[in-house]
Amino acid sequence: QTKTGIALLYDEVSENAYDIQLKLTKEVLTIQKQDVVCVSGSDHSANHRTVTLHRQPVGGLGLSIKGGAEHKVPVVISKILKDQAADQTGMLFIGDAIIQVNGINVESATHEEVVHLLRNAGDEVTITVQYLREAPSFLKLPLGSPGPSSDHSSGASSPLFDSGLHLNGNSTNTAPSSPSSPIANEPKYEKRWLDTLSVPLSMARISRYKAGTDKLRSNAFEVLALDGVSTGILQFYTAQESADWLRAISTNISDLTLQNMKMANKCCSPSDQVVHMGWVNERFEGTDSSQLYKFKFLALKGSSFYIFSTPPVSTLDWVRAEKIYNLCEVLFKIHKLWLADDCWLQANLYLGIHQDFDLEDQRPYCFSVMVGHGKSHYFNVELGSELVVWEKSFQRAIFLELQRTGSKTYMCSWQGDTLCFTVDFALGFTCFDSKTKNVLWRFKFSQLKGSSDDGKTRVKLLFQNLDTKQIETKELEFQDLTAVLHCIHSFIAAKVASVDPVFIDSQSIARKYMYSN
After folding, report:
1. What pLDDT is attached to residue 37?
2. Per DSSP, which regions of 228-382 are E strands?
3. Which of 293, 296, 303, 414 is the right S-S partner for 282, CB 3.0 to 4.6 Å?
């Protein structure tokens, strides 16, 4: 199914926006711009058309113009009167930039200079025109035909003056019709939407934020292909349109990612399957304490959590990850969702409506992944629905890994003795001498009643003796205490999930938010 619609392409350098048409298919997002093409007759290029107009006693040249050098845009035809001189040629269109009048170049002329020239050019006026594909939106030119039934531009007034080069007659904003009796072999022209850029959506990413900052673009976003090709900044007329397109493009990217995962999994063993992967933004601290965001590609595969700067497209790419962590030793945490009771605020954020409050240094859909040695990675995604998927995927990937491995053993020490500490899915916690392998103590998961640590290497585990009901304290020292604590947390969560899957679902912060909205 193909989705089409009108949007604006914003140029950050000139700060102008141009009308475009978007065409979305399952695999590609195409940007189209209007142009005038020769559809029959002479085969010469439609880039420059030279047309002779015969001034009429009633209606004059039958057109209006807008723009000029003082506005840093060419003079363009802004209206064409039906059945008048300009319309009858069948070769002039709204949006045509006037290049010459009777052989005089007017590309750098002001509005008034062109008006004067046209009005005093005699009864037979020869003009050379070229269709302006990137007409700034402030000109408020109607898109004409072909186009949407409800035109965005025609209802708004332009700050630029329309000079009508006609006498009497009512102007219309429709595209010019062909002359009633065209001359044989005369070229015939039409205004059409032409493909100018196609962005493949496989492994593509979306950004609603100004590059590297926390500043959310209003009703706008950018789509970047795997090879770095960008759509540019796509602006929409309403928050609802922006949200609809964002969801549609995001859905297609997700579907293609799922296909890529299935292809990758055909080449992997059952114990090394990809559970989920996708683009996120990772936050870094700048040298001046500012917050910078960089695109990262995350993957949950087999026993590992991967962080890439670019997606893995071949089996060899998996060893080129920036970071690889053992899934048993990471802790996923929803970092910022602005839950509270303010669903109205959440809904508005989702749609990009934020005129009434400051969003400058905040991103709503954030999670952190805590790793070993007390370190963590802080990520942000573009949509609340993506946050739900990441939360669920981390739970599933960790659970599958724990089911596969069954247990995890760490070297530790206490009072000079070198010991081994094992967390086992079936048996719980076991501590034994690393040399003799003699078991020093063993407790079930249900016997763990609490713990405390010094934030460095030492932990106290509080177990309840089943016979005496007394609490027994066991102290141990680990080289990477954080990894061990995360592992214990993962095993307990997996144990609970195996007994009561509904309980784990009920603890999902992101899903609670999504369903409440």
Report:
1. 82
2. 230-235, 274-285, 291-301, 304-308, 323-326, 331-336, 366-370, 376-380
3. 296
- pLDDT category at 418 given cuts 50, 70, 90 is very high
The token duo for 124 is: 């037979």
For residue 275, being part of any structural domain is answered with yes
Nearest to residue 61, comparing CAs of 201, 221, 220, 171?
A: 171
Q: DSSP for 9-29?
A: EEETTTTEEEEEEEEE-SSEE
Candidates 81, 64, 290, 250; CA nearest to 165 is 64
DSSP string of 199-215? EE-TT-EEE-B-TTSS-
* pLDDT, tens digit (0-9, with 9 covering 90-100), for 272-283: 999 999 999 998
Residues 369 and 293 in one domain: yes
Boundary residue ending a domain (120, 136, 152): 136
Strand partners, 300: 276, 305
Range of the domain at 388: 238-345+362-398
DSSP string, 149-183: SS-SSTTSPPSSPPEEE-SSS----SPPPPPSSPP
CATH code assigned at 426: 2.30.29.30
Domain assignment present for 249: yes
Distances (CA, A) of 185 to 84, 190, 500: 22, 16, 79
pTM above 0.85, yes or no: no
State the pLDDT confidence band at 133, using cuts at 50, 70 and 90. Answer: confident
User: Does 152 map to a domain?
Assistant: no
Starting at the earlier edge strand, list the strands of the sheet with 458-464: 439-443, 428-433, 417-424, 407-414, 471-477, 458-464, 448-453
In a shared domain, residues 368 and 297:
yes
Q: Are residues 450 and 475 in the same domain?
A: yes
Residue labelled with tokens 């369903």: 515
